Amino acid sequence: DVKVTQSSRYLVKRTGEKVFLECVQDMDHENMFWYRQDPGLGLRLIYFSYDVKMKEKGDIPEGYSVSREKKERFSLILESASTNQTSMYLCASSETGTGDSYEQYFGPGTRLTVT
Amino acid sequence: AQKVTQAQTEISVVEKEDVTLDCVYETRDTTYYLFWYKQPPSGELVFLIRRNSFDEQNEISGRYSWNFQKSTSSFNFTITASQVVDSAVYFCALSEAPIMDSNYQLIWGAGTKLIIKP
Predict the structure, then answer these.
(1) Do the beta carbons of residue B97 and residue B28 sit within 8 Å?
(2) Which pLDDT tens digit goes with each residue over B35-59?
(3) Cβ A42–B105 below 8 Å, yes or no?
(4) How far apart are CA A24 and CA A10, in angstroms?
(5) SS3 call for A77
(6) How close B36 comes to chain A (CA, Å)?
């Protein structure tokens, strides 16, 4: 079974802090994704990565950055946390294939509260 | 433009009833993929099914079935004899065939909250 793990289920940070959210997958997937999920807004893609050191902006990258130094690990960084970044953060991974799109497997999520 | 519409925001049924969740999509591509995910109260999104645009056969998996109709751009999900454990938010998603390594995004519907009452 695919396993995607996230470093914390719940996190409380103060405004202005630098926040790291870590995600690890064990299925050798090339693609990894970070989403945030807010009531009424559904899932919104923040960033994704299709290879080590490669990244692409999603729909809402402002205020976030990412790092992918190893294939299995994809980190989301909030450079200076703000209260409007209070949300559920979901990490996902998927395999890649020429011309095919594969399902994404999700971690349990991190509920981040910024006070 | 790509779009996924799940018009039903919330559905509430009594246990053992059958229930259908609607998903309508828009895409200009001839090759695309459709997905359904379940998000139970615990929060973790669980993959249910992936279907490509060339396979219009209906799929049945236990009490779950999916009806893919290209003529109406719909990919509906039916739960037969619903159970309380089916209570969750269900998401439909669309992906066009990636032509570049950097193009594996999913377009998500807003989700349908399904409540199964005992």
Answers:
(1) no
(2) 999 999 988 999 999 998 988 888 8
(3) no
(4) 17
(5) strand
(6) 9
Mean pLDDT score, A35-49:
91
Write the pLDDT tens digit of every residue in A58-108: 999 999 999 999 999 999 999 999 999 999 999 999 987 766 778 899 999
How many beta carbons lie within 10 A of that of residue B14, not counting itself?
Answer: 11
Nearest CA to A86 among A16, A38, A21?
A: A38
CB-based contact B39:B46 (threshold 8 Å): yes
Contact at CB, A54 and B108, closer than 8 angstroms: no
Q: In whole angstroms, give the CA distance from residue B32 to residue B48.
A: 17
Do the Cβ atoms of A54 and B102 come within 8 Å?
A: yes
Q: Which member of A43, A50, A58 has the closest CB to residue B101?
A: A50
